[in-house]
C-alpha cells in the first residue's frame, strides 16, 4: 500500500467508534483475571504464549498494578527478579523458567550461557538469565509498592532487602554503562532500551552484520504475524549483537551499537529520586541521590535535548551524532520534575502536535513519528501505541500541571485496554489490538490508572507525581 492509500485508510479508521467502556468494577475484575492467569507462583509472565519467562521492566510495571490487588504479590514480583541480579549489579532482562522448553522462546538459555559466559561478571549459578538489561524503572516501582501498604512492607523488611540491590543496579548503570563519559547510561543492544524495533535503531544497526538466518529460529513468529514483527534482517542483527556481547563475556565497552537514550535515562533519573525516598524511609538521607538525579537531568538536557525537534533525541556514541528520528522515547523525560519550563512546554506541544497527534488524530501516544517515513501503525515499535509509555506520559503530564490532558489520556488507556482485550500494543488511531492479548503490563497499568484516578486519597496523590525532596 502506498503512502497516500495508507493515510486514507487511517483517516477512515479514526472514525471507528469505541464500544462503551466497561464499568470500573468490571474493568478491575477483567484486569485482575489477566494477572492471575499469568502468575506463576513467584512472578508474572508478560503473556503465556509469546513471552513465557520473567522480563525485567515488565515485572516492574506489573508490580505497580499488582499493588492494588495484593501488595504481597507485588513485593514478591520484584524480589523474584532481584534474586537473579548479577554480581556486577546488572539486573538481566530475562530470568528463565527452567520448566519451559528451550524451543518456546528464542534467544533461549543455551544461547545466553549466562552461568558460564557471565561468570566473570558475577552471573548467578543457580538460575539462567540473559546477559543484557532493560530500562531501570525498578526503584520507582519498589517505592510505589511500598506506598500501597507501608505496614506490610515494614513488617516484611521489603525496602531493607531491595534497597542494596537497587543501589547496586544504579551503580552499575552510572559507572559501567557511562560509555559516553558525560554521566548518562548507554544501551548496547536495542532490546535493552525496551523499544526493540524502533526506527531510531535503523542507522546504528546498519553497521552490524546480521547473523546467518540458519543460525537461529524465530519463535516469535509462532505467535505473531510477520508483518507486525521485526524483519528477518533486523532480527539477524539483534542476534549478532547479543552473540558478540556474550562472546566478550558481557564486558561493557564501546561496540558497533552504543546509544544514549532519553527514556532509559529518564527512568534512571526517576528511579534515583525514588531511591532517595527509599533511603529516607530507612532512616538515611536522600539528599545526595536527589542531587545526583538533578545533575543527571542537566546532562540529559545538555546531551539529548533538541530544540528544533521539540523533544529529546537519541545519541549514537559510535559517531557522536544525534539520531534524527522522533520516537516516544524522546517524550518520556516529561516524567521528570527538574526540567526547565520551556522544555516541558515544548514537549507537550510536540506530544499534541502533528508528529504524535495526542488528543487530535490519535487516541494513545504512538511509538514513532506519525509523519516519519518508517511509520507503521501495526509494526512493533514503529508506530503502534503501548500502554507502558502511555502510563509514563500520563504521569509526566500530571506532574507538570497538565491535568485535563492527563485525565483524557488515562481515560483513553482504560478504554483501549478493555476494548482490545488487554493487548500488548494497539493501533494508535483506532485502539485495535496488535500483538499478544491478555498482556500483563497492560492489565497492571490499567489497574493503576483505574485506582489512582478514582481514589483521590493523599497517598495515591503522592504516588502520581515524581517530585524531588525527601518525604517520610
Automatic annotation (TrEMBL):
The keyword Metal-binding does not apply. InterPro entries: 6-hairpin_glycosidase_sf, 6hp_glycosidase-like_sf, Glycoside_hydrolase_63, MGH1-like_GH. SUPFAM superfamilies: Six-hairpin glycosidases. Pfam families: MGH1-like_GH. It comes from the Bacteria. Signal peptide: none annotated. This is Mannosylglycerate hydrolase MGH1-like glycoside hydrolase domain-containing protein.
Amino acid at each position: 500500500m502506498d503512502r497516500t492509500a495508507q493515510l486514507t485508510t487511517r483517516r477512515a479508521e479514526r472514525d471507528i467508534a469505541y464500544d462503551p467502556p466497561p464499568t470500573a468494577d468490571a474493568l478491575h475484575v477483567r484486569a485482575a483475571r489477566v494477572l492471575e492467569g499469568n502468575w506463576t507462583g513467584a512472578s508474572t509472565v508478560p503473556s503465556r504464549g509469546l513471552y513465557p519467562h520473567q522480563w525485567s521492566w515488565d515485572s516492574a510495571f506489573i508490580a505497580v498494578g499488582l499493588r492494588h490487588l495484593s501488595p504481597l504479590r507485588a513485593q514478591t514480583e520484584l524480589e523474584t527478579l532481584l534474586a537473579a541480579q548479577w554480581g556486577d549489579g546488572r539486573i538481566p532482562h530475562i530470568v528463565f523458567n527452567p520448566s519451559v522448553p528451550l524451543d518456546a522462546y528464542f534467544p533461549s538459555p543455551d544461547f545466553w550461557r549466562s552461568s558460564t559466559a557471565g561468570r566473570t561478571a558475577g552471573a548467578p549459578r543457580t538460575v539462567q538469565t540473559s546477559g543484557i538489561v532493560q530500562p531501570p524503572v525498578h526503584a520507582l516501582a519498589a517505592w510505589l509498592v511500598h506506598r500501597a501498604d507501608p505496614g506490610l512492607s515494614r513488617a516484611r523488611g521489603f525496602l531493607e532487602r531491595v534497597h542494596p540491590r537497587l543501589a547496586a543496579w544504579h551503580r552499575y548503570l552510572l559507572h559501567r554503562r557511562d560509555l559516553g563519559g558525560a554521566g548518562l547510561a548507554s544501551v548496547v543492544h536495542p532490546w535493552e532500551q525496551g523499544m526493540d524495533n524502533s526506527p531510531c535503531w535503523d542507522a546504528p544497526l546498519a553497521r552490524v552484520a546480521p547473523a546467518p538466518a540458519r543460525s537461529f529460529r524465530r519463535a516469535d513468529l509462532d505467535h505473531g504475524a510477520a508483518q507486525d514483527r521485526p524483519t528477518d534482517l533486523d532480527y539477524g542483527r539483534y542476534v549478532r549483537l547479543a552473540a558478540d556481547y556474550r562472546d566478550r563475556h558481557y564486558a561493557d565497552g564501546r561496540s558497533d551499537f552504543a546509544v544514549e537514550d532519553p527514556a532509559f535515562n529518564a527512568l534512571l533519573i526517576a528511579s534515583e529520586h525514588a531511591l532517595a525516598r527509599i533511603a529516607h524511609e530507612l532512616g538515611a538521607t536522600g539528599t545526595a541521590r536527589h542531587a545526583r538525579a538533578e545533575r543527571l537531568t542537566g546532562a540529559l538536557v545538555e546531551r539529548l535535548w533538541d530544540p528544533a525537534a521539540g523533544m529529546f533525541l537519541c545519541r549514537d556514541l559510535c559517531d557522536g551524532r544525534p539520531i534524527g528520528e522522533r520516537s516516544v522515547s524522546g517524550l518520556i523525560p516529561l516524567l521528570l520534575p527538574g526540567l526547565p519550563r520551556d522544555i516541558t512546554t515544548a514537549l507537550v506541544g510536540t506530544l499534541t502536535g502533528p508528529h504524535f497527534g495526542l488528543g487530535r488524530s490519535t487516541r494513545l501516544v504512538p511509538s514513532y513519528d506519525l509523519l516519519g517515513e518508517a511509520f507503521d501503525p501495526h509494526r512493533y515499535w514503529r508506530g503502534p501505541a503501548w500502554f507502558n509509555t502511555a502510563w509514563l506520559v500520563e504521569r509526566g503530564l500530571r506532574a507538570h500541571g497538565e491535568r485535563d490532558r492527563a485525565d483524557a489520556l488515562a481515560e483513553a488507556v482504560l478504554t483501549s485496554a478493555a476494548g482490545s482485550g488487554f493487548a500488548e500494543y494497539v493501533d494508535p488511531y483506532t485502539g485495535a489490538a496488535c500483538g499478544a492479548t491478555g498482556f500483563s503490563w497492560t492489565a497492571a497499568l490499567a489497574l493503576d490508572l483505574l485506582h489512582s484516578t478514582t481514589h483521590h486519597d493523599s497517598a495515591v496523590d503522592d504516588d502520581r507525581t515524581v517530585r524531588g525532596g525527601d518525604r517520610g
